[in-house]
Amino acid sequence: MAAWKFVVLGFVLSMLGYMHVQSNAINIQSYQQSLTDMYQLAEKENLAIHEWQVRMRDERKDTIRNKEEFAQLVDSWTKQLHDWKKTDVSLKGNEWVVQFTYDNLSHETTESVQLFAYLSPSQDDYTYLITYEVIGLMTSELEFNKMYDMLEERAQLLGLNNADVYVQIKAAHQPVVTKQISNIEYAEKWIKALGAKTVEALDEETFVSVSAYNPAWSPVLKTKENKMNVQVALRQEERMGGRTTVTIGTPIITTEY
After folding, report:
1. How far apart are CA 195 and CA 93, in angstroms?
2. Conformational region of residue 108, where left means phi above 0, alpha means psi within -120 to 50, and beta covers everything else
3. How would you write the chain as a 3-class SS string?
4. Rounded-to-integer distance, Cα 61 and Cα 210, Å
5. Contact present, 115 and 74 (Cβ < 8 Å)
6. pLDDT at 233
7. Rg for the chain, CA atoms, rounded
8. What is the pLDDT of residue 195?
9. Which InterPro entries does the record match to this protein (predicted)?
């Protein structure tokens, strides 16, 4: 399970080369229950939520033949996202990328859109991805409804109705000193509370990662051996009595943890 110890979005994109996502056309509403379940678990277990994240990823069938066509693509998105901040376009090597960011004050979130083109296996054109990410502070279930409406609007605007979607929360846990419960026991407890069954686990001195499967949630990542769609990770501060950072994600955690 060590391969899951540090997972970033780029790694997930490559992982999907040998993992199969089993799902129909995905929309944001399919994730409302899982994100709500995570929030309710955090509330019940007195986890101090730092942030929630939603990521959408869509690999486009259209191809890009050269840098000029990628530049044209960037221009069209710049016009569409005219009130977003654009970073410098990177055209180094065979991987081209541009990112747009937007501080959404009305929803207290930070949004970003990234266009990423990479050389196709045929070596004669480029495949491109569109990723959308929103990060915010989860305050109440009432805020959920507003957030879901916003995400539906974004999916429509960006053409991401059939995108792969990843959601997660990050929180802090202060264990009760009088209770001798290990991090792996906490992780297993929370996996069970989410209605999932453990598939694989990694238990180290200051780090725990558990992958599990919940048949009620979609989509599902199908590895060579197991189905999985839930991850719980705990990283404990090394100092005595330090807090533990908890990350819970579906179908997989997509940030370093």
Report:
1. 45
2. left
3. CHHHCCCCHHHHHHHCCCCEEECCCCCHHHHHHHHHHHHHHHHHCCCEEEEEEEEEEEEEEEEECCHHHHHHHHHHHHHHCCCCEECCCECCCCEEEEEEEEEECCCCEEEEEEEEEEECCCCCCEEEEEEEEEEECCCCHHHHHHHHHHHHHHHHHHCCCCCEEEEEEEEEECCCCCCCCCHHHHHHHHHHHCCCEEEEEEECCCEEEEEEECCCCCCEEECCCCEECEEEEEEECCCCCCCEEEEEEECCCCCCC
4. 34
5. yes
6. 97
7. 19
8. 95
9. DUF1779, YwmB-like_sf
Count of positions (residues) in the chain: 257
Region of 195 on the Ramachandran plot (φ > 0 left; ψ -120 to 50 alpha; else beta) = left
**CB burial class (10 A; 0-12, 13-18, 19+) of residue 26?**
buried
* Tens of each residue's pLDDT in the chain, 257 residues: 333 333 333 334 334 433 444 443 445 566 778 888 998 999 899 999 888 899 999 998 778 888 999 999 999 999 999 999 998 788 888 899 999 999 988 878 899 999 999 988 877 888 889 999 999 876 666 666 777 888 888 999 999 988 899 999 999 997 766 567 899 999 999 999 999 999 999 999 889 999 999 998 888 898 778 899 999 999 987 665 567 999 999 999 998 76
Domains of the chain (ranges plus CATH)?
2-250 (3.30.2030.10)
What are the two backbone dihedrals, phi and then psi, of residue 222, each rounded to the nearest 5 degrees? -105, 110
